[in-house]
Amino acid sequence: MAAASGAAAIAAGSNSTLAFDVERVREDFPILKQEVYGKPLVYLDSGASAQKPTAVIDAMREVQETCYANVHRGAYYFSQHLTDRYESVRKTVAGFLNAGSDQEVVITRSVTEAINLVAYSFGAGLSAGDEVIVTEMEHHANIVPWQLLRDRTGIVLKVAPIDDDGNFLLDAYEALLTPRTRLVAVTHVSNVLGTVTPLKEIIRLAHEAGAKVLVDGAQAVVHGKVDVQDLDADFYGFTGHKLYGPTAIGVLYGKADLLKEMPPFQGGGDMIRSVSFAETTYADPPLRFEAGTPPIVEAIGLGAAIDYVNAIGHEAIAAHEAGLLAYATQRLQQIEGLRIYGSAKEKAAILSFTMEGIHPHDIGTIIDREGVAIRVGHHCAQPLMQRFGVPATARASFGLYNTRAEVDALARALEKVKELFG
Question: Which of 163, 181, 335, 339 has a 20 to 30 A CA-CA distance from 103?
Answer without folding.
Answer: 181
